[in-house]
Amino acid sequence: MNSRERVLKAFKRLPGLPDRVPVQFDLCRQLSDHFGEELGIQVTYTENPYEDVTYRISANELRVVLGSDVIVTGASVSDDYKIIKDEQGCWLNEYGIKVRQGDTYVEVIEYPLEKAETKADIENFQFPDPDAPGRFKDALVKKYKSDYLIIGDIEVTIFSLAHQLVGMEKLLVDMMMETEYVIPLFEACAEYQTQIGLRLIERGVDAIWVGDDFGTQISLIISPETFREQLLPHYKRMIDRFKEAKPNIIPILHCDGAVAELLDDIREIGFEVFNPVQPNVPGHLPKEMKNNFGDKFSFWGAIDQQDLLPNGTDEELEHDIVEKISILGKNGGYMIAPAHILQNDISPERVLKFIELCKKHGNY
Greatest CA separation found in the chain? Predict the structure, then answer.
């Protein structure tokens, strides 16, 4: 059984169980560079218009050698875009968001729509061109299609893109005040990322990975009612358009935080795979997830990269992997992965141990 068949069975798109639970992981630049040098592999970095998505869609040639069962591809910055840093080391990304590099992820310094109030403010804002030269130069479908499941990543999709454009505090206040620009902003973000997703579908991806965070470590960011009224319809239209373009596309949602309260709505939208099943937050115990939502979703993720992977013992990591596989992977429906990108607080040896243990205990 090759990796493609393994993941299709795990995601319940082919009958029967896979031979083992499939494995996936993302690596920061430091880890990718380390393994690339160690293995003699030239690592390809696909710079996404939103910088932190870069490490989701890069280093595929390295990750499959290390043991990943999927390829993750996505949009690149256009050939015409160049980073021009000011004297403080800040730059404008392709969305016009002023950013600087933080310790782990980029930090937003200025929001291009921080003064938005009206529908006209959104209509006058220029999103990147989906068809700009070089936008999909690293879409790797043909190279890997026969052996691996190909995921098209459009993370930072609607809600997250909106608050990166206007600022989180402003957006949340304006959502409660029902300020005129809010729904047009969600519509514009949805339309832009829908166009990116449709172009990835044209190139042959098997799945579309949407990514927006609706939860904190302890609760939802917004109420379920607000989610249903102001956000759900845009996601529903997006997924419907993807399915119209490719009926067998696999819709995946990445959503950090304690979001179990929204999972019925998320399934109603049409998502079939839930990622990252963030551990150690209310409502996300493996048994709760499998018992309450195992008939609605396949799961992807669930291994803690905040504390367990960098700080836990090998025995603690092995125990957690066994637990997640035995519960979330029971009767299929699970791809094991860290809950987020592995950062350089995790040693290369630890990354290899994670992969080894997943394969050791993943057989059905």
Answer: 58
- CATH code assigned at 14: 3.20.20.210
Say if 348 falls within a structural domain: yes
Give dist(CA 332, CA 16) in Å, integer. Answer: 8
- Whether the model clears a pTM of 0.85, i.e. scores above it, the answer is yes
Residues 220 and 262: their CA atoms lie apart, in Å, by 9
Residue 82: band (very low, low, confident or very high) from pLDDT cuts 50, 70, 90: very high
Question: Can you give the residue range of the structural domain that contains 240?
Answer: 3-77+115-361
243 lies in some domain: yes
CB 183 within 8 A of CB 237: no
pLDDT confidence band for 102 (50 / 70 / 90) = confident
Q: What is the rounded distance in angstroms from the CA atom of residue 162 to the CA atom of residue 183?
A: 10
Number of domains present in the structure of the chain: 1
Phi, psi of 65 (to 5 degrees): -65, -40
Q: Which long-range contacts does 319-326 make (Cβ < 8 Å, 24+ apart)?
A: 321/354, 321/357, 321/358, 321/361, 322/361, 323/286, 324/286, 325/21, 325/358, 325/361, 325/362
In a domain, 103, yes or no: no
Is residue 86 in some structural domain? no
pLDDT at 38: 97
